[in-house]
Amino acid sequence: MHRTRTRRITRPAPFALFAMAPLLAITPLLAVHPASAGTAAADDPAVPPRGSAWMGIGVLAHDGEDGRPVEGRAARTEGVDVSSHQGDVAWPTLWDSGVRWAYVKATEGTYYKNPYHPQQYNGSYDVGMIRGAYHFATPDTTNGATQADYFVDNGGGWSGDGRTLPGVLDIEWNPYGDACYGKSASQMVTWIRDFSNRYRARTGRDAVIYTATSWWTQCTGNSPAFGDVNPLWIARYASTPGTLPAGWATHTMWQYTSTGPTVGDHDWFNGALDRVQALANG
């Protein structure tokens, strides 16, 4: 694949990121936020700075290896997800490689906004992709409704233009401390429900839930409460999506690798392009 002069930043793997935490702490594009109660100390070199999380940061560390062949030829549509770690993205290159949809990190908690969001969000749209935004949840810092408001107010909204996907709640292992953010299973379900309800009230759409089955089982008690409402984006770096969390009979999207042939994590939409368009249209 030819290179463009557009800036590309290779995102480190989770273990590498932890090792680089002292360096990342002084990198201007990553907002540093004091660790909240119940998380590891802010000066712990094993803990990355607040704001630096991305979709899938815990998957490699907790849920299997990356890079194994992906099997099956069912109808599917290639997508990517990106964050500030990718910097300015070469969207024409991704389009030429066959990518047709994208999700961009907009926010984290109520303390971080992706400084590359405008280039990534608008750039993907400008080349013809169907795009949306995601929010990295930190349930130990503020409640779900508050974080949904912050997300919508800072790039995570939805419009019925046929090219904008509903927002995603990225709920996974806590890179800054306790895996379940210090919450019991019932407390976590309440937090997710509060986020989902507020997002729907603000946008008229149900948020997509991105998670891994092992985290969902550990931290929600494998709750079936959202399967009838929220589309599922499953994270599993293996040859198949595997067993899904309770409540979902099928997945809408599958993040199958963090080391795709082009920038960002790579994903498959479970259907042809017209199904991606249907999700955008609501």
Describe this structure in words.
The chain has one domain: Glycosidases (TIM Barrel), CATH 3.20.20. It is of the alpha/beta class and 282 residues long. The N and C termini lie far apart (35 Å). It is built from nine helices and nine strands. Helix 8 links the parallel strand 6 (208-211) and strand 7. An eight-stranded mixed beta barrel has the order 1-2-4-5-6-7-8-9, surrounded by five helices. Helix 6 packs parallel to helix 7 (185-203). It is an enzyme of class 3 (hydrolase). Residues 1-31 form the signal peptide.
Mean pLDDT comes to 84
Strand-residue fraction? 15-25%
Low-confidence stretches: 1-42
End-to-end span in angstroms? 35 Å
Q: What's the number of extended β-strand segments?
A: 9
H-E string: HHHEHEEHEHEHEHEEEH
Major beta sheet, strand line-up = 1-2-4-5-6-7-8-9
List the helices and strands and how they pair.
Blueprint lengths: L13 H6 L1 H4 L34 H4 L14 E6 L8 H6 L4 E8 L3 E2 L3 H10 L3 E7 L7 H10 L14 E3 L14 H19 L4 E4 L1 H8 L11 E4 L17 E5 L7 E5 L3 H9 L1
Parallel strand pairs: 1-2, 2-4, 4-5, 5-6, 6-7, 7-8
Antiparallel strand pairs: 1-9, 2-3, 8-9
Helix pairs in contact: 6-7
